[in-house]
Amino acid sequence: MAKKNVVVIGYGGMGGWHTRAICGSKLENDGYQPPKGMEDGSDCVSLKGVYDIKEERQELARERGLYAYPSFEAVLADPEVDILTLAVPNDVHKDLAIRAMAAGKNVISEKPVTLSSADLQEMIDASEKYGKLFTVHQNRRWDEDFLAMKEVYESGKLGYVFNIESRVHGSRGIPGDWRQRKAHGGGMMLDWGVHLIDQMLQMIPEKVKSVYARMDHITNDEVDDGFKMDVIFESGLVYRIEVGTTNFINLPRWYMQGAIGTAELQSFDTTSGEMVIYKNDDEGEVKPVITAAGLTKTMAPRKPSSLDHLPLPQIHADVHDFYRNVCKAIDGEEPQLITHPQMMRVMKLMEAAFQSDAEGRPVSFE
Q1: pLDDT tens figures, 163-192
Q2: Which of 129, 286, 350, 357 is 20 to 30 A from 80 via CA?
Q3: Exposure of 55 by Cβ count < 10 A (0-12 exposed, 13-18 middle, 19+ buried)?
Q4: CA 323 to CA 365: how far, in whole Å?
């Protein structure tokens, strides 16, 4: 397969990540490490250049040996450019994507793809009108912690799974840039919620009955700096998504409860957790736990011989499969992996979460 030429629009944090993923270790002194397995650069795309509206970013790119286009119009006018990757503030995704597709370019938008389902529909309509690929970089579908817990869920080893908790916690607040501003699409729902919702919908193949969300405004009144979101699926499974930026002690990254077992993962590291599965009734007489104010048999620990402690699956993923799929989809060799209906479902769930918070009640869905 001939490599496709990519231009990265926006040479900030994620723009730098994309350039390093494409170039690998050939890109010196840029402050970014290539993704695991990508040290030699991409096998499916080549970096044609970058463009940023800030001249200091343009100059930085030149210092690192990259070609910096003089304008966005110059990018669109270059017939050798196949794909634009948009790594810019969320509020400008729609305009740039539609202009790019109208100019005959395929488009990858960083997440969230845009700010509303109405805007997203305009982008999808443009993709269909101009016959160009349009997708979003939901890179955390390749997170190994997610893939490990997805495998646990699908294995049935925990029995009927009735509760899943997926969370990310930090203590640094919202990054001190445009992510603090509502007009630019800031806040944690659009920053991290979009990832965790997409992971949830990839894991659970059911319709969503309702959504109940509560946004936090601990350090920022303009946008949410955290939230808790309970999603109820048609089977009754409760899936909690939680993002916090004022957590100085983190709760587990994952917690999954089934009728005969529990799985926990403390962090993104898949070796930081385990499954504990009910094995037999070798309990005998339960020895009560003595507390300061009385005793309890109900909360007494099980006898160790009645339980199996198992490691979590160890998954090895390659995040650059995203770009490989984009290239093959452009050539008609395989379906687009992150589809327009999937993008719309994530967007509408985020909108339902904001509605739930504003109205202080659960919101029906699907």
Answers
A1: 999 999 999 999 878 888 888 899 999 999
A2: 129
A3: exposed
A4: 32
What distance in Å separates the CA atoms of residue 155 and residue 275, rounded to the nearest whole number? 12
Q: Return phi, psi of residue 278, to 5°.
A: -65, 130
Phi-psi category of 79—alpha, beta or left, where left has phi over 0 and alpha has psi -120 to 50?
alpha
d(CA 47, CA 20): 10
Q: Is beta strand 161-169 parallel, antiparallel or unpaired with respect to 254-258?
A: antiparallel
pTM: 0.95
Is residue 94 classed as helix, strand or coil in its secondary structure? helix
Strands 106-109 and 226-233: unpaired
d(CA 332, CA 327): 9
Q: What gap in Å lies between CA 284 and CA 271, rounded to an integer?
A: 33
68 to each of 8, 11, 58, how far by Cα in Å? 10, 10, 6
CB 267 within 8 A of CB 278: no
The answer to whether residue 31 scores a pLDDT higher than 80 is: no
Reduced to 3 states (helix: H, G, I; strand: E, B; else coil), residue 365 is: coil
In this structure, the number of other CB atoms found within 10 A of the CB of residue 351 comes to: 18
Interior angle at CA 360, CA 355 and CA 365, nearest 5? 45
pLDDT in tens, 233-249: 999 999 999 999 999 99
At 106, the amino acid letter reads: N
Contact 44, 323 (CB under 8 A): yes
Asked if 44 contacts 327 with a C-beta cutoff of 8 angstroms, the reply is: yes
Q: How far apart are CA 173 and CA 175, in angstroms?
A: 6
Token pair listed for 223: 């946008």
Q: Minimal CA–CA distance to 319: which of 144, 142, 135, 199? A: 142
Residues facing 262 on adjacent strands: 257, 276
C-alpha dist (Å) from residue 299 to 4, 152, 290? 59, 26, 10
Q: Which two tokens stand for residue 9?
A: 């629009």
Q: Which two tokens mark 4? A: 């496709």
Measured distance between the N- and C-terminal CA atoms of the chain, rounded to whole angstroms: 40
Q: Centre a 10 Å sphere on the Cβ of residue 147 and count the other Cβ atoms it contains.
A: 20
The whole-number pLDDT of residue 322 equals 97
